[in-house]
Specification:
Rossmann fold; 249 residues; alpha/beta; 19% strand; two-stranded parallel sheet
Length: 249
């Protein structure tokens, strides 16, 4: 398929997991892609791994004063923006009695403030009819202990998608969300848990998923590509859940 022939896409959090899989998918369908990541080594590694014309920007999205420069740079490198995928995020476990203000701030900044500023910065570079896809989470529909800040910030993203869709509809810009459930990505290794605890947690989660397995980053990337393509031309303000039936069955 070449649904993204001559399209320009920027992906935040594009160096691993869902972001990297999405970059690979869009490149495979003809897009030119720019990726944003915080770690210079991971950005360089992702650019090498991707078989295509890749622009890169190294920026910590928690330092939101750098957001505008990053988007401007990539938009200039690509010659405009047809697709913006807001995928950067972090998961931090924190029981209610132990959650700290920096943990709350990091998640609210990465999941609410940074995406909003990214869209703001991209506005002058968007073509009319551009598409925005934001990665939320199926946990914005579930109450999971230890996920208060994360789930609240993801619920905030869901609300943001609706508002942005309403504000940008006049330019024909569609705004939608993809809500992954448990997906096989490196994010779980960043939770600070030992391997035995991670294994126990994974087994517990799998037992709750009707399809009986974790999803893959490629499966989520396929859903992102759908929402960013003309195949979803009459869809805006929506959230597509990719969770093996976890929140529905």
């Amino acid at each position: 398929m070449t649904r993204f022939h001559d399209k320009r896409a920027i992906i935040t959090g594009g160096t691993t997991g869902i972001g990297l899989a999405t970059a690979r998918r869009l490149i495979g369908e003809g897009a030119r892609v720019g990726i944003v990541g915080a770690d210079p080594d991971r950005v360089a590694s992702a650019a090498t791994a991707l078989d295509g014309d890749v622009a890169t920007s190294v920026v910590d999205l928690r330092v939101t004063t750098s957001m505008g420069d990053s988007i401007d740079q990539l938009a200039s490198d690509l010659g405009g923006v047809d697709v913006l995928v807001l995928n950067a995020g972090v998961t931090m476990l924190g029981p209610l009695g132990a959650i700290t203000e920096p943990v709350i701030d990091d998640q609210l900044t990465l999941h609410i403030k940074a995406p909003l500023l990214a869209v703001q910065a991209a506005l002058p570079h968007f073509v009319d009819g551009a598409r925005i896809v934001m990665t939320t989470s199926s946990l914005n529909q579930l109450g999971m202990p230890g996920m208060a800040a994360y789930s609240a910030s993801k619920a905030g993203q869901r609300s943001l998608v609706r508002t942005l869709a309403a504000e940008l509809i006049g330019r024909g810009i569609r705004v939608n969300a993809i809500a992954p459930g448990p997906i096989e990505t490196p994010i779980y290794s960043k939770l600070g848990l030992d391997s035995a605890t991670l294994t126990q947690m994974a087994n517990d989660i799998v037992g709750r998923i009707p399809m009986g397995r974790f999803g893959t980053a490629d499966e989520v990337a396929a859903a992102v590509a759908f929402l960013a393509s003309d195949d979803a031309g009459y869809i805006t303000g929506q959230e597509l859940v990719v969770d093996g039936g976890w929140t529905s069955i």
